[in-house]
Protein 1
Amino acid sequence: MDDVLKRYEDKMKKTLAAMEDGFAGLRTGRASAALFDKIRVDAYGGKSPLKEVANISIPEARLVVIQPWDKALLGEVEKAIRVSELSLNPANDGKLIRISIPPLTGDRRKELVKQAKTQAEQARVSVRNIRRDGNDELKKLLKDSGITEDEESKTSTELQKLTDRYIGLIDKSVKDKEKEIMEV
């Protein structure tokens, strides 16, 4: 039964990681290289992730410096940032791109917190669905005489403990993100 628990715990871990990846894309008033993870640049006949064609550094709390490895891509990198959903205004000096991260307004902060809470709720639902799938598998094993009632009951209880633990981790993560967003 440990293999069943392990399999469903792995799925819960992936759900938590996906939610936290989503949080990385929520712009706070602070500069972060993770903001640019979803930006793709037209380069060499295809779309490449920004981090594969340029160095992204954070020299100050509200400043991002992007230096393409190939200077010919400078314009494409700038264009990709301008058309992204980040609403940032890159400054190109011919060698690198500087992006000043403006402070967030109160309304924008509230909107970002709402987005974070929505992502957290989706993750909670996903974790509960994983628990349901695990319980369904246990009932099928019990019906097919693959396990005893005691094993099914014990494993189901352990699955519930895993679910509670991951829901707690999601709640903590969203509280931390909310605190970070609301920080002035």
Protein 2
Amino acid sequence: MNPVEETYRLIKKYDIHARKRFGQNFLTDSHVLEKITRASGVGEGDFVLEIGPGLGTLTRALCEKVSGTWDASDVGAEDPSPQKEARGHVLAVEIDYDLVDILEKEVMPLYPQLEVIEGDILKTDITEISKKYNNGKPIKIVANLPYYITTPIIMELLEGAAPVESITVMVQKEVADRMMAAPGDRDCGAVSLAVAYRAVPYLAANVPQNCFKPRPNVSSAVIRLDILDEPLVHTEDEKLMFKLIRAAFSQRRKTLVNAIAGSAELDISKDAALLAIQKVGLSPTVRGEKLDLKAYAKLADALRKS
């Protein structure tokens, strides 16, 4: 079965128009599809959590990967038999109830290893999913994310304590550049430090606009994040550290002390922020974008003690 041809068939059959409020763009390129599945490292017997399956283009390929039947050189093969014993498992979480209905009618009957649920991944307990489907072991996440929600989802996955082995995502090229950026780089942002804290990033492919329907206004990229066994640095208060990072990068033009004091997430006075900044050996006029993870960890610990 050719997943891309199936996508076109479903678009025509159901007269589907991408919903802007969900940031929908449907993947329509077999070569990119293979790059995503190859980059993900998904193999026979794996459990995979797919975020935003859409019309099931990537979903079909993942189902065949976990059952050991996917071969990019053999697109157009006969439909898999519903009676075939399921190996591995794909759990797809989709926020659009209309697409869930289509997936349940058109895709699930062909793949006994597939389960589709309606839901918002930001409100989904991934730890519980790991316990239920994978005996609590780290899971592989694969997604073609709506670009407006990419950074919040990635931040949520990296800041949380859910057992995750890897995250392979299609993202806006600009976001991929930020994920790969080092502290001090022009592209560095809060997501850059979140990635560095929990993962090793790998840029798998650049993807042009003509690989989607409708065609987006920006270029895309496939990136894989291999989750570290232990965070890159140690801090006594991880949540506080990320609040400091978000405060600093949401107000780039301000000095770090003013960004902390002005953050709605933090209840820290300017005097307390200044004292902690000086205590860890930083300049009172330093901007947050200049700090690396180690400095943020030290600052979080100093503020926690005070």
Protein 3
Amino acid sequence: MQEFISSNEERMKKTVASLKEGFAALRTGRASASLFDRIRVDYYGEKSPLNQVSNISVPEARLIVIQPYDKSLISEIEKTIRSSELSLNPSNDGKVIRISIPPLTEERRKELVKHAKNQAEQSRVSIRNIRRDGNEELKKLLKDSKLTEDDQGKGETELQKLTGNYIDQVNKVLEEKEKEIMEV
């Protein structure tokens, strides 16, 4: 029974982790190196993560500096960032790329919050689906006489507790991201 609960909890943990990862790529008005986690640059025919071919630093709240380890990559990095969905306008001086993060408009902030809420809702649905699958598995085990009705009830109660806990975590992560997006 413990193994059954643990495997379902692990799936719920992965759902929350995935949400956090998705939120890291959501652009707020503040500079963050995590904005570039999904950016891949063509490096000798291979698509390499930007953070593996350059040093990304945030010297100021609204400025990001990218220093490629190989200077020949500057134009490729600049082109990749321009064509990404981040809507940023990088400039380079031949050695480093500077990206100024413009403040978000009120309308854009509301759009981002709406997007974040949609992502959070998808995570909550995923967690509920994990609970449903777990409950169905418990019913199947009961039907196959591999556990008692009491054990099934305990399992369902435990799954419900886990579901509530992880949905609360999703709500907390969403609340933090909303606050971050809306701060000026």
